[in-house]
Amino acid sequence: MQTIDTEAEKKEILKRYRNLLKACKPTKEGKALIRLAFDTAMEAHQEMRRKSGEPYIYHPIAAAQIVAEEIGLSTTSVVAALLHDVVEDTDVTLEDIERTFGKKVAQIVDGLTKIKGVFDHTSSLQAENFRKMLLTLSDDVRVILIKLADRLHNMRTLDSMPRDKQLKISSETKYLYAPLAHRLGLYAIKTELEDLSVKYTEPEIYRSIAQNLQQTKRDRNKFIQEFTQPIAEALTKQGYKFEIKGRPKSINSIWTKMKKQGVPFEEIFDLFAIRIVIDTPLEDEKANCWGVYSIVTDSYHPNPDRLRDWISIPKANGYESLHTTVMGPGGKWVEVQIRSERMDEIAEKGYAAHWKYKDSSGDNALDEWINRIREMLENPESNALDFIDEFKLNLFADEIFVFTPKGELRKLPANSTTLDFAFDIHTEVGYKCIGAKVNHKLVPLSYVLKSGDQIEIISSSKQTPKEDWLNYVTTAKAKSKIRDALKEEKRKIAEEGKAILQRKFRHLKITFNTSNINELLAHYRIASPMDLYYKIAQGTLDIKDLKDFEHEKDNIKAKVPHPKTEAKSFEKMVKDIRGSADLVIGEDMDKFDYVLSPCCSPIPGDDVFGFITINEGIKIHRTNCPNAIQLMSNYAYRIVKARWTNQKEIAFLVGIAITGIDEVGVVNNITKVISSELKVNMRSISIESNDGIFEGTIMLFVNDTDHLLKLIKKLKSVTGILTVNRMDSN
Ligand code: MN
């Protein structure tokens, strides 16, 4: 028989009790109440022991400690946590508790007791249980927070439980409690619950990742040290009070990544995030966080796609922070989180910490949140299993959850449209999007998505981004990608306009220089040279006016001698070429100088024309080249007919762009199709993968368009490949 040193145990219990008081810092009356609760629990659980053999009272004390220290709740919750198992397990009644501790505490303990009954006696219908559990939340959110503390302590002490209980409790934790903690913004608890679940459901994996993290710790710390040093120096120099933490990501999130990407631990690169927490007055915190951002990006290049500003618009669960991903030493992307001490506390402890900072006036966020849940729970039409989905889908109105045709879940901001979704899938998918099927019904680009929608994007290779698309999109990503594309398009057109203007200037014997261009800009009231060239190319600015302009403006008369001889020989060349028969590409090499234009990379089979350039001979363009219309409308006299030779042995370089779902072996399958099945010569292949979607570019040699089309068709049939398109330019 085991002997128990009761004196030592009593000492230990008191020590733990004093620690609890230290963590919750109660008022004088609060302290008395907590003491009373402690004594009540002590007496009620006196004879009870946990599976581990320890006195049962360790458990309510530990749960209360979590409530105070890790969730940031105060006296009422600590009292309720100490009493949470009393009514269920002992002779103490709810009336006793109400008499001694008041109505509020009794209500919370009642809620906790009911939850316990629900979970312990039925085991199969988890969703129904979960619903009941949330019903109690509508009385007081503290019930849920204390329940989470209770569960966390049970997970921390799961070692002494039999294996089957370990599995049941861990799965339940992962499936219900961790998401709940996440919803409530309790990130630290959520992470620990998830990690502990992995520890018991997949012990081998947990051990191996933990071990790997331990082994790589020194290298990681060295990298973090090196990375943060210039930032810390600059912050100090500018007078910031700050703390920099470099934290490894949780075992669960590493494991999730390994599974998702199908790679071993060694190939997970973002194993940690850098967090910069600044001590700053409330009114300056936003400005100071952006100040820190500026310092960070002075040292390292940010990835513009990865900037997240949850300070201007906090997440619905209260999370505030500024996230950026920058290129660190050695070409490694590093995530940097910037926040104030207040934000950090909210991020770690969630809503409870939130209350502490807001005075009672004006903060209705929590009430609203509870109301929304209550409405959902009171809807009699939803059955329990639907409810889980609804819980996931509708809890927060500022985010929606939608699905790809293959059932992959994607999260978008509220009011996102089909076009946002297309860009969320992939930039190329966005550019080529012409519409979509939502739940199998055809909808336009501007269709506003709802949670639960399943979207199939319809695209066309002919599609290009349009100006009015900017009115249809909500996400920053889509907006910036559309702007980029429009700018690029405009730039190309403007180049043509510039050439026209240069010719015109030469004609009028005006020097083509900045000061003369500036004169023009001022004259036409146009903001930039690019806008000017663009307008000229579009024909919206009548360039004939230039003559009048010239007369008015004496200061523009910096003349250049006209290169007459050059022009004469060019005119003669044009005449010569146009006077002979059609240009046959592949045969007339010796007669004329010609090149295949890199802007559209024509290959045999394409409809083409030749364009006589001043210095580079004849350039061959595809008739559907983005520059063709400009060239043909402005320089019809320099266009020559061209056709392809019938010879087959010449191979032409062509680029194809592919996108698809990242699956193991997909690259292998692609190269197999190209080189062994179709015997095509490949020059290069590059594949980049991001969040399960990959995009790649393949440069290869083909004989003609038939050959290319056959290849594209074949590639499209490879599992996992979504789009295969010929690229306009190499
Ligand atoms: Mn308990």
Strand content: 15-25%
Bound molecules: manganese (II) ion
Please state the CA-atom Rg, rounded to the nearest Å: 35 Å
> For this structure, what is the CATH class of the largest domain?
Mainly Alpha
Provide a descriptive summary of the structure in words.
The chain has 730 residues and is an alpha+beta fold. The protein has 5 domains: 6-209, Hypothetical protein af1432 (Orthogonal Bundle), CATH 1.10.3210.10; 210-361, Beta Polymerase, domain 2 (2-Layer Sandwich); 484-557, no CATH class; 570-644, no CATH class; 652-726, ACT domain (Alpha-Beta Plaits, 2-Layer Sandwich). 51% of the residues lie in helices and 16% in strands. The chain has 29 helices and 19 strands. The strands form 5 sheets. A 5-stranded mixed β-sheet has the order 1-2-5-4-3. The longest helix is centred in the C-terminal third of the chain and has 33 residues, at 476-508. It is elongated, with a radius of gyration of 35 Å. It starts with 5 loop residues before the first helix and ends with a strand. Manganese (II) ion binds next to loops.
